[in-house]
Amino acid sequence: MYKRLRPWLLRLPPEAAHKMALMTIRLRGALWYPPRPPEWRLPVTALGLEFPHPLGLAAGFDKDGQALTGLAALGFGFLEVGTVTPRAQPGNPRPRLFRLPAEGALINRMGFNNQGLETLVNRLHGHRHTIPIGVNIGKNRDTPLARAVDDYRLAFAAVVPYADYIAVNLSSPNTPGLRTLQEPETAMALLGALKEDQRTLARSIGRRVPLAVKIAPDFSDEALDALIQVIRATECDAVIATNTTVTRPVAGLSATTKEQGGLSGAPLAPLTKRVISRLFAGLGGIPIIGVGGIRDAQSAWDHLVAGASLLQIYTGLIYEGPGLLETIIKGLYVHIQETGCDDLACALQAARRNLSSGIEPNTIKFQ
């Protein structure tokens, strides 16, 4: 079905096509009741949570939690909504989303357009979870960087009763200055404050909600190693690697590739894999959620072998459609069989032992 619709969708302006897709999925969710869990089973235990399989939806597709039931019906193992900011904001001026179909990529400079905390919280409050749901939080564009921690703390406190985990977005290239929050001293203060709030709020709501940090793919080795030390020192529960890149790892430089914003999709895969590998070597078992350039079963497998415990897709979904989930999950089954193992944990340990990097097997438990 999607293959027949794709040529028509690609004729629409990118934001219009996205809005139509989200409305269609939302309608499917309204007709899909009661909810049921995903049919595919490759169970993963990470962040203290149980996932039916490792493939989730990245933040940005459903910023405001409008289509949670419909998205779960597509078969995702988990969903991440947002980025949400304390106050609603329109984002950057249009046009702000651009396709590179030959490269399987997108460039966006959306700028955290969203309906704000109150709207998202109201939707999450009325939603019945069938799979884990993460909430990605950010700061408002007009909040000074010196007060960014206030926005993150406010958002964290508002969504913590309704989230299975919370992702702290410090890496979007489309909010001026945001990536400076990844610098060691600033990141230490911000993540430290959120970890203290995590402990306090756990007592009030009766459960501890894991805290993940989403990072950029554009670090030097030295800068990434410095951030790894901050993540370990603040005892973050997970790292999401990676956000979009401000570089242009594409064959040609067309007018579209020169648009400002972050690039996602297939060309991002090598950058993301490099970051995952370095994180895996340095984090001492902290889970990694791999996102960036996953477009088929092989790229998904490569991210897992590099060190990811969970995966997320977005741009690949735009170009390949919902059938991409089944393609990836079935492909992972094949990779498991090729290693001579019966489960994902065994298969990844075997594959990682074959790497020449000397990285030890992941300590995250797969069932």
Describe it for me?
Strand 12 (288-291), helix 9 (297-306) and strand 13 (310-313) form a beta-alpha-beta unit. Residues 359-367 have low confidence and may be disordered. The protein is built from twelve helices and 13 strands. The protein is an alpha/beta fold and 367 residues long. The protein has a single domain (2-353), classed as Aldolase class I (TIM Barrel), CATH 3.20.20.70. The strands form three sheets. The chain has an eight-stranded parallel β-barrel, surrounded by five helices. Strands 5-6-11 form a three-stranded antiparallel sheet, with no helix packed on it. The longest helix has 22 residues, at 184-205. Helix 7 (221-234) crosses helix 8.
Keyphrases for this structure?
367 residues, alpha/beta, TIM Barrel, 8-stranded parallel β-barrel
Please state how the strands of the largest beta sheet are arranged side by side: 3-4-7-8-9-10-12-13
Helix content: 25-40%
Level-1 CATH class name: Alpha Beta
CATH topology: TIM Barrel
Give the averaged pLDDT, no decimals: 92
Give the overall shape, derived from the CA principal axes. Answer: globular
CATH superfamily: Aldolase class I
How would you sum up the major sheet? 8 strands, parallel, barrel
According to DSSP, the number of beta strands is 13
Order of helices and strands: HHEEEHEEEHEHEHEHEEHEHEHHH
- Contiguous helical run count: 12
Strand residue content? 5-15%
N→C terminal distance: 34 Å
Unreliable runs: 359-367
Number of domains: 1
CATH architecture: Alpha-Beta Barrel
Kindly provide the radius of gyration, computed on alpha-carbon positions and rounded to a whole number of angstroms: 19 Å
Please identify the structural class as seen in this structure: alpha/beta
